[in-house]
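Help needed: design a sequence for this.
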């Protein structure tokens, strides 16, 4: 999967899905949401972050041919620093 939307767009779609009683994650398309907004927001964020990590790892391996363990933490930190908890609150509590 290649992302064309920002994380907040996936949060919005998740909220729309819940309003329509559809418990499908807008990132992985699995029926894993349960109506608990905190739990669902965490799932969407983790799902999105895991996909972003996979994309970054693939990109790194393609460019460098190998993947030293020390670089892994740098890539994961780079991705996780992009996400702020207040964005989750804004989407799900507004």
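Sure. Designed sequence:
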């Amino acid at each position: 999967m290649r992302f064309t939307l920002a994380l907040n767009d996936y949060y919005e779609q998740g909220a729309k899905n819940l309003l329509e009683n559809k418990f499908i994650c807008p990132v992985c398309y699995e029926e894993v949401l349960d109506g608990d907004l905190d739990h669902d927001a965490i799932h969407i964020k983790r799902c999105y972050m895991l996909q972003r990590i996979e994309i970054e790892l693939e990109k790194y391996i393609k460019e460098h041919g190998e993947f030293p363990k020390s670089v892994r933490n740098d890539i994961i930190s780079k991705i996780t620093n992009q996400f702020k908890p207040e964005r989750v609150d804004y989407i799900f509590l507004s």
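The chain has a mean pLDDT of 82.
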